[in-house]
Design goal:
148 residues, mainly alpha, 6 helices, elongated
Length: 148
């Protein structure tokens, strides 16, 4: 199995990168929807629209993309376990764990918005819009440049 995965490694890596792009696109758009949701009138048509958009984005794009990222990463690690000993991996992995934790936290916030609550402030969501992006940048630079 490991030999097959090594021969398919470039394809697995390409799919992994595509999944990361989809995941991060959703992770950066969802807080933007939360900002717009904050601005919508409670109980109004716009609020119902944002609830629907947030649910669709999370369940249709963000969740499947994150699952694909983790599954494909697991295949790459199984094919090439030496990666786990590399210094850059010890920086990249906590970034991915952090993005995953934020993903879970966004999921919880989405449910709160769906119940009609307004968790946090618009300013907070503007800041949170940037954090997964910065973490992703660190992960990408580690995986591509392999500085140590």
């Amino acid at each position: 199995m490991q030999e097959f995965l090594l021969s398919a490694y470039p394809w697995i890596k390409a799919l992994h990168i595509a999944a990361v792009i989809a995941w991060m696109a959703g992770m950066m758009y969802l807080p933007r929807l939360f900002i717009y949701h904050h601005q919508a009138e409670k109980g109004g048509e716009a609020e119902r629209f944002f609830v629907l958009m947030e649910r669709r984005l999370l369940k249709g794009i963000i969740n499947p993309a994150m699952i694909a990222v983790w599954l494909l990463a697991g295949l790459m690690l199984y094919a090439n376990p030496g990666i786990m000993a590399a210094g850059w991996f010890h920086v990249k992995f906590p970034m991915v764990l952090g993005i995953s934790a934020i993903h879970g936290w966004y999921s919880r916030a989405r449910r709160e918005f769906e119940r009609g609550e307004r968790p946090r402030s618009e300013r907070f969501w503007r800041i949170m819009n940037e954090i997964p992006f910065l973490m992703m940048l660190i992960a990408v630079f580690m995986a591509v440049a392999k500085p140590f």
